[in-house]
Design brief:
31% strand, 189 residues, binds nickel (II) ion, 4 helices, 5-stranded antiparallel sheet, alpha+beta
Length: 189
């Protein structure tokens, strides 16, 4: 068991496309996941992708804490989920603007548009296949973590950089996201 060092924005491991895992049940995958869980428990956060701990494999862990849910169908609390070789596809055209943070981009928050509803699949470290539909924060955390496997950090998904802030200032001077979303929609038409 070990608490792993987190790669920060600028490290090449966060920019490359991670490799598929040939055997999700391999002992080295189980060992990695165990250390990733210990690391996430230690630092806190909703999710962690293997490239963030300097391992370029398609492995993610994530959870949905109760306080981040809306209670809508598909957006309910989720215990820690481990997924190997995950895939995601959006359902429908609806997008939502929401705040994100990332352990690899410490101290910042930014607003990102994400698909409101997704279907995702993957494998557990026991080799079982998983298929779920997610909405709201659950859909957001899945899209954020899976992006790490393709070398994408959330700032690259941002369309309005005025919605990037240091956490302390973001807490002191709350920004109205609904208003920002309206402004951006108007600018686009
Ligand atoms: Ni992240």
């Amino acid at each position: 068991m070990a608490i792993l060092k987190i790669a920060r924005m600028g490290h090449p491991v966060l920019r490359r496309v991670a490799d598929p895992v040939p055997d999700p049940t391999a002992p080295e995958v189980t060992a990695l996941v165990r250390d990733m869980i210990e690391t996430l428990d230690d630092i806190g956060g909703a999710g962690l992708a293997a490239p963030q701990v300097h391992v370029p494999w398609r492995v993610v862990i994530f959870k949905v804490p109760e306080e981040r849910t809306t209670g809508r169908e598909g957006d309910t609390p989720l215990p820690l989920t481990v997924l190997v070789n995950p895939l995601v596809e959006r359902i429908g055209d609806e997008i939502e603007l929401g705040w994100e943070g990332c352990l690899s981009v410490p101290g910042l928050r930014g607003a990102v548009w994400r698909a409101a509803r997704v279907r995702y699949t993957g494998f557990t470290t026991e080799g079982a296949s998983v298929e779920r539909i997610a909405e709201g924060f659950h859909a957001r955390v899945v899209q954020h973590e899976f992006d790490h496997l393709d070398g994408i950090l959330y700032p690259q998904r941002m369309t309005d950089m005025t919605l990037l802030a240091f956490v302390e200032e973001w807490q002191r001077f709350p920004m109205d996201l609904a208003e920002a979303a309206e402004r951006m929609a108007e600018a686009a038409t």
